[in-house]
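Lab notebook, bench 4. The sequencing result for the construct came back, and we need a structural model before the next group meeting so we can plan mutations. Quick request posted to the team channel:

Model the 3D structure of this chain.
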Amino acid sequence: MHVLILGGTTEARRTAELLHGLPGLRVTSSLAGRVATPRLPPGEVRVGGFGGAEGLARWLREHGVGLLIDATHPFASTISFNAAEAAATAHVPLLALRRPGWVDAGPAAGDDWHPAGSLEEAAAILPELGRRAFLTTGRMGLAAFAGCDGVWFLMRSVDPPQGPRPARMEVLLDRGPFTLEGERELLARHRVDVLVTKDSGGAATAPKLVAAREAGVPVVVVRRPGGPEGVRVVGDPEGAVEWVARLVGCGP
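Done. Here's the predicted structure in token form:
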């Protein structure tokens, strides 16, 4: 059985690790190619887009894919909708692997969270909360903050940003997981007074929320976009492996 994992996330790599080598399975991981030096999972790897839902459906048929796992980033909604359409067209069972969001668990005592429906909404409320922002929403959405002239930004991403960006910005190239001690030091050293983040969930980048809580720093949290309806969802790689094992009849 050929299993295609749409990923690039920590959960996608872990799923590939758990499935790799199981009898009767061929595992291919597909990466979008937005990161210059991604951490590659075991098994076969392809990099780049498919050409929308139609292109993905064609790839599924041509490569004999029997199961499709959408383990992309929670904010990569376009590929998730394409995956749902392609799976229905090619008659391939689809599973969505989505790590639980931080908003799902709710703020802890001492948190000062300000929800935003989009990056643009986050940029609109940001000046009311602080003047030195730690921006952890990724390099692809910087244009939304280009008009925040009264705010200085510390932007952290894996690769250097391109395109429109805030006029006053320092770029920090780094890759998680991040430690609580490191996040505390970063907030203090740069005198950060507001944090902007997406509700990505997961433990790798959660320490910044704890550091902000301890420092009394408000947090603008961008809510997740909606996903396709009718798709089975699990919250961890182990759940994805159970789904594959149940359909294929194999196991660790």
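The helical segments are 10-19, 52-62, 77-90, 102-105, 119-125, 180-189, 207-215, 237-248.
Will bring this to the meeting.
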